[in-house]
Amino acid sequence: MKKSVLIIDDNDQMRAEVRRHLTESNLFDEYYEATDGVEGFKILLNKDVDLILCDVVMPGIDGFKFLSMKKARPEFNDIPVIMLTGEEDVRLKIKGLEQGASDYITKPFDSGELVARVRVHYKIKALQEELRATNRRLEELSNTDGLTKLYNRRYFMELLDLEFQRAQRYESRLAFVMMDIDHFKEFNDSYGHLLGDRILAEISQILTENLRVNDIIGRYGGEEFGLMMPETDLKGALVVAERYRKRIEEFTMVEGDKQLKITISLGVACYPHPQIHTMDDLIRLADNALYEAKKYGRNRVEVTG
């Protein structure tokens, strides 16, 4: 990733001096320059900027106004701004800090101080980005099943609960499908658990590839999967379920010199329904329909009355 800096100052000589010191220290790969706040903000809107050095006193849009414009755009909140000022007035410095400045450097500045302050604030920004990435990864790990890469049961149930509450509140539809891999235990017993894991991963990939934009799928447990379809009536849910059934029926798992055919059974339930008053009712009806699909031969879609 290229590192970039934006230098905003109406004094050509000052911009050149700042750029020279930063260049000599090899801190950035790309340098952008602007003569006032408006020009600087336009660059900010169109370029990826990692750090900003901005003069306080400029004609037209000064440093304080630039800070206000930047503050109004949340996507720029994490970009540090170091203000350049010839003023020693503490009140002005406090004003800038309150408006979002990260630090101040008083002109004329010492080159060593300039480079040191820039280095520190860039490092802080990099560490914050690394922390956010780590937090996102931790959240993903806590919500995702390691084998299938689908949502795990805990997080899936949280999402289903939210969707069910939303459907009740706005009197909208919510379809739910329970899926189960047919004869999964026999695959495990005949070929071992490693093949069973491969089957789970392959089926999950097929389900994910065919997922509609607003639908959510998760590993419900063992060889069972759950699929929620907001704003979907029973007719639409049956069409989607049948598409999943057929797509997996067409899939062939190759194991050595054997070609293994895999199928799934699916049970569908849809809210609103006379027997559905809670999320548990929705799951129970879908599970009952899945039991019917197993009972009547597997590799089929069933719905409870």
Folded structure, characterized:
The protein has 305 residues and is of the alpha/beta class. It has ten helices and twelve strands. The strands form three sheets. Strands 2-1-3-4-5 form a five-stranded parallel beta sheet, sandwiched between helices. The protein is elongated, with a radius of gyration of 29 Å. The two termini are 57 Å apart.
The biggest beta sheet reads: 5 strands, parallel
CATH superfamily of the largest domain: Reverse transcriptase/Diguanylate cyclase domain
> In CATH terms, what is the architecture of the largest domain?
2-Layer Sandwich
What string, H for helix and E for strand, traces the elements in order? Answer: EHEHEHEHEHHEHHEEHEEEHE
Name of the CATH first level of the largest domain: Alpha Beta
Unreliable sequence segments? none
Indicate the overall shape.
elongated
End-to-end Cα distance:
57 Å
List keywords for this structure.
305 residues; alpha/beta; Alpha-Beta Plaits; 5-stranded parallel sheet; elongated
Layout: helices, strands, pairs:
Layout: E1 4-8, H1 12-24, E2 30-34, H2 37-46, E3 51-55, H3 63-71, E4 81-85, H4 90-98, E5 103-106, H5 111-143, H6 153-170, E6 174-181, H7 184-191, H8 193-209, E7 216-221, E8 224-230, H9 234-249, E9 252-255, E10 258-261, E11 264-271, H10 279-295, E12 301-303
Parallel strand pairs: 1-2, 1-3, 3-4, 4-5, 11-12
Antiparallel strand pairs: 6-8, 6-11, 7-8, 9-10
